Amino acid sequence: GINAEYGTLLYNKLFELITDMDVTAEIEHLKAAIKRLGVDNGDGTWTVKFGVLFNDTECANLFEALVGTLRAAKKRGVVLFQGQMLLSPTHDDVDVKLVAA
After folding, report:
1. What per-residue confidence (pLDDT) applies to 39?
2. Helices and strands: H and E segment counts in the chain
């Protein structure tokens, strides 16, 4: 009935909100990692090579899926990089630019 449908809708919305909060937290960690490992461009942006991020022990421990976090950050306009997805070692020399510090 209507209650079951409403319950399912509510559950899905709650799951979406929690997931969004997790992604937001991961993006904040990503921003900190880029600042820690990257170069200050002097214009409010920071740049780091994908391979540096990917091979950093702290990043490996923090991000279950660095690639997914990067894609979400790109979608939100926080970072810029060429292509849709970065994979190691193929894209180790690709710049990841933090634009929304």
Report:
1. 97
2. 4, 4
